[in-house]
Amino acid sequence: MSKPKVLLAHNDFLPAIIAQLMETFNVKIINKPMVGSTYQDLLDNIAGSFGLIISGGNIPVDEHLIETAGPSLRVISSTSMGYECVDTNALKKRGIVLGNTVHATTDRVSELTVGLLIATARHFLDANQQMKSGKLPTSLGTGLTNSVVGIIGCGNIGIAVAKMLSGFKLSGLLYTSRKPKPEVECLGGQLVSLNDLVGRSDFIYSGHGFGARNYVYHK
């Protein structure tokens, strides 16, 4: 009996994971890195697949792609937290299971975010360029102390960022969300409108609505 086909959207998966999958499935790998794999690559290779494994939201998994896979497609798995690229309504109509790894990247992304906030506040990039040119930094910035930080889109990562920032001497922590977040409120966080957050914050972190991308702003 032949093994069910599983399509991997790129070749950046760990060899140990691929080896484990190959014990049960006929694994087809698109031989491109995650940033190079395209929608057309999936379209050309997905026919007859039992499963599809993707990473994040860089390639849309829409109804056309799902139809091209055919009735054999039963599972789609995202190795990241987000699945905004997947047409969940199309999956529901066909009874296809969708899996994601909710907390897989929470710590690393939130740590990176706090690092970017510090680097932005303390002008690390400018200082680095000046040092490379043989000059002393002209400014060390203002720092996060006594500043107001705003978090746009306070999901798992936003909450983790708020917890990490609780160790800094902020003068205010603002956030936007569809509903109050007790985990942030207990740290002194305040749920506000987007306009209010933008108007009052010195630094803004946005992890909402941009797929796998996260942004830090300094006003």
From TrEMBL:
GO terms for molecular function: glyoxylate reductase (NADPH) activity; hydroxypyruvate reductase [NAD(P)H] activity; NAD binding. Gene3D superfamilies: NAD(P)-binding Rossmann-like Domain. It comes from the Eukaryota. Residues 114-205 form the D-isomer specific 2-hydroxyacid dehydrogenase NAD-binding domain. One of its GO terms (cellular component) is cytosol. Keywords: NAD, Oxidoreductase. Pfam families: 2-Hacid_dh_C. This is ACYPI002000 protein.
